[in-house]
Amino acid sequence: MTDQQGGVRGWAAGRKGALSRLRFTSLRLRLVVVFGLVALTAAVSASGIAYWLNREAVLTRTQEAVLRDFRQEMHNRAGSLPAHPTQDELQRTAGQMASSSQRFSVLLVAEDATGRTVYGNSGGLNGFELEDVPKTLRAAVIRQQDVTDGNKSPYHLYWQRIVDHGTPYLVAGTKVIGGGPTGYMMKSLEPEAKDLNSLAWSLGIATGLALIGSALLAQAAATTVLKPVHRLGVAASRLGEGKLDTRLRVSGTDELADLSRTFNNAAEALEKRVAEMAARDEASRRFVADMSHELRTPLTAITAVTEVLEEELDSEAGGIDPMIEPAVRLVVSETRRLNNLVENLMEVTRFDAGTARLVLDDVDIADQITACIDARAWLDAVDLDAERGIHARLDPRRLDVILANLIGNALKHGGSPVRVSVRETEDELVIQVQDHGPGIPEDVLPHVFDRFYKASASRPRSDGSGLGLSIAMENAHIHGGEITAANSPEGGAVFTLRLPRDTSPLTEDPEDRAEKDKGSGDGAQGETP
């Protein structure tokens, strides 16, 4: 069942990937569409022009040949008829005219000696009759025009193209000059129409092939253009992942090659800049670590002396001159503060160097919090809401550091009583430290865990180092947890510590962890301990 689901998911993912590559926002698809539209427009335009030119040429050539033959037949045969021919004469002459090389149908109209209108039909095309001739054409043929210098003849030859039952025809007519019959001709243009239809099909097929060819060319062009763009995107992603040695292979002299060179130059400059910053950061951390370490030796001696002075201050013998007692107390407090600062700096240095490690143990959370409060004489200032029996596997020393900093900060800025509550979920431990002070200004909340951050430059000098909350956050992070700061609706600040119930996986070697995960994945029916 799992394999089937995996196969379905794989098919769906592949289909989704294919659709994403074909979406209209894809540059490849847009290139293919644009190429196709350009090719289609060019092919249709060229085919349309070619079809129109060939159509006019074919029809004009056929029309001129037919009209020339009809004019010649009217002059030679109809012109030889008497002014008032009989119907038999018209019929015979129409048949002779229709037997010409162009094979058109002929209709002759005249008046006989009695004034009756007679007709002579060649008999083709189901009997060519006068009703088959458009009225406008008949009116133009029999209309007599004035003879002038520019018009030598009172009658002219007129023609018109018509379509009857889907078949194209050429119809023409003229009148014999000097008296005689009126002749009409009808010629089928179906062969020419078939030739033009074949030409249209050929041009359509050529247009389709041109469209397909343009799509293939567009695909090839898109591949040529998009491959370097894809490589550039992959290189940019690798650069964003921190692989600053990523470079592109440059070939050619076009704009894409220039872009690749620009990317390589930018990556090289960025790598140098990051290396310089890393070197300066490492030198700064090393300086702080060395200074902190060097300060511990004289601080040890100074601390020993201040402890003696503090004992003298507290002794009943009164061994310290009252005039210098304030100075001695100041020296004692500042020495203690300096000692705390050096210890905090060394702790921060270990975090920055990545040498901080967890020493895990099974801890009763209520007992641990009670021990932290008792060691600092905060029992009267802290309300603890924690059930006994809540256990977690973590580093007790680092948890003590976190709690001491959070509770001490709450007592310093919010006053007592400070409420510490503990609750647990299936795989998470949540500890809240809430005070009853004025709360934290909204503009300060994002920076409360920053090192040496001061909400105001004019804030009075405090006894703290400015590193306590930052160290607490680092200790939470090394456990795989988090600390958040907020203001309670009832007033006061609330710091929430979230830690996993078991941090053992964080202390395992990555290779051992991967081997363990691989081993656990071999058995589908295994139980999680």
TrEMBL record:
GO terms for cellular component: plasma membrane. Its main location: membrane. Keywords: ATP-binding, Cell membrane, Kinase, Membrane, Nucleotide-binding, Phosphoprotein, Transferase, Transmembrane, Transmembrane helix, Two-component regulatory system. The keyword Cytoplasm does not apply. It is found in: Cell membrane. One of its GO terms (molecular function) is phosphorelay sensor kinase activity. This is histidine kinase. The gene is afsQ2.
